[in-house]
Design a protein that fits this description.
6-stranded antiparallel beta sheet, 33% helix, 20% strand, 563 residues, alpha/beta, globular, 24 strands, 7-stranded mixed beta sheet, 17 helices
Length: 563
Amino acid sequence: MNISPLAGKPAPIRILVDVSRLITAYYTDIPDPAVPAQRVAFGTSGHRGSSITRAFNEWHILAITQAICFYRKQQAIDGPLYLGIDTHALSIPACATALEVLAANGVEVMLAEGHEYTPTPVISHAILAYNHGRKIGLADGIVITPSHNPPHDGGFKYNPPNGGPADNVATGWIQAKANSLLEGRLKEVKRIPHAQALHASTTHQHDYLSPYIDDLGDMIEMEVIRGSRLNLGVDPLGGAGVHYWGRIAKHYGLNLTVVNEEVDPTFRFMTVDWDGQIRMDPSSTYAMQRLIGMKDKFDLSFACDTDHDRHGIVTKSHGLLPPNHYLSAAIFHLFQNRPEWRKDAAVGKTVVSSQMIDRVTAKLGRKLYEVPVGFKWFVDGLLDGSLGFGGEESAGATFARRNGAVWTTDKDGIVMALLAAEITARMGKDPGEIYHKLTRELGEPCYDRVEAAATPEQKELLARLSPQQVKMTELAGEKIQGVLTQAPGNGAPIGGLKVSAQSGWFAARPSGTENIYKIYGESFQGADHLRRILEDAQTIVRSALAPSSPPTPASEQKSKESP
């Protein structure tokens, strides 16, 4: 594995992003829409990129925001738009640009009071709260964040009135229109000066913190956590929830310590991720070294990524839990401790999440709803209550309120972190202990994910993988039982391939947000069997990429589950 010698160590000054250069490039560099890498491209979580590579510049934001205005008009969406930002350096200038366009188009915009940062789930919560009981004048939202991406990146994503990530139809339309606007050199873009936009009659200050924090008691058994006096620690990783945790602790009387309240767009306080970059990934053992080092100071500790839609849980018993472990334990707890949930409420998972979730779901007597990668596939089920829980192996999940009503239709790292405290307080065991008890009954899986660089052309080839390209009849010595290119839950294309045998599987797909491809694999027969699964997966990927160029050798790939 090609792990950087800096991985897990404090970030040296020489790798810190030059913020002034980043922002200057945002305003001065103009993308060329004839260059694919400089066009607007909505992946699984919006448009992302760096201003330094002309992938996230002011022209992109002008075009995307105007395209969203056109989309709102086409869809008759004329309620307020909830606009939030995270703490990445490019988020504030992108917000200023977006506001200039929104105000010029007469859109009612809800900005956070006091220029506060706003987590992704808080935007979803605000949209759903406003739209509850309404049929017309519906609200939607924009979140300006590249999630846990490195400090040099910016991100811009749209949430329609259902509160969740926009679906492929919406993002495809917005992407196409935005690129058309770029090609037309922004002639159709309406814009007014920023000072005028800030003071426009359509621009409003909004308190995001209070309604969200007040409602957390509808999600989590706060009284149980408070009564347990658990000693809790949280690291916001310099993200958008940095000022939420102290308010949550005070409001609910929790014994919770915020270990770091620093906000710095260079994120110099982070330990370096596997590849030598700074990345605010709460599921990475490398990025989470500071909180892991404090695990014995707290009964339980947790962190969230920069926009607080992902979680990382650190237990005394097992340290940082792999996301699949925590999702399994969370599902096991929730469906036994939410008596008001619908009896037919299902468990939602993505095709690349652990098969342990399938086994836990079967043990609970619940239905499994398996979908492609992307949280947008859970939105409808969360809205109508047919899903009690929806989660991804990348540490993103949300679930229903205690009464079964919808909470958010986007990932919520805050409630997933607080749920770990509820589990520990109520069960007397932390989620790591609960997971390992489950493995003694249901089997212990070995899971891994490898990543390697891929060109856009290679990614396109991977996305078109078909069952016919699998010539093998066995996977790591077992007969292949299934080859999927569509998700079992909703029949949607998975953008890749999943191959299953009795005690193991793998899935191969291109990343929707980065120029990499991913191979996920799992075995219930141990590490050696998993290695053989991944080797067989390599054979298929190598064949698929043959018309382009060979994939990166396994020895140069990065393993996500390796410490």
